[in-house]
Amino acid sequence: MPTTDPYAPDNIFAKMLRGEVPAHRVFEDDVALAFLDIMPQTPGHTLVIPKLAVRGIEDMPANAWGPYMTRVQTIAAAVKKGMEAEGLNLRQYDGAAGGQTVFHLHFHVLPRWGGEMLRRHGDRIEKQDVLKEQAARIRAAF
User: Which residues are catalytic?
Assistant: First the structure.
């Protein structure tokens, strides 16, 4: 059953899709946009959003999942390679009670290295030059 709350076209991710807000983009096509999280839990923390205006999992049309998840897979591989990670976490938070804070469907791709703890999301905003360098590494991995 789709979410009862309407999609808010003024959310930060919708603004990024329209080019109204800058982002360190690592991938974009007609299906998805991927960019670095400015409050990363780990270096190279990347968000993958569909180009469709969907609030959460239940709002995504069934026929759109395959193309979108193919992009998530491709982007995850590039993040892992570009950041020289040993592994990955793939996370999705759905609804306020599920921890979602931006109500546009998105997946978090978190590169991981053995023994490294994740930072808390929101602890700090990463420096722009660091994000720029990480985005370049990930783009080069495609």
Answer: 106
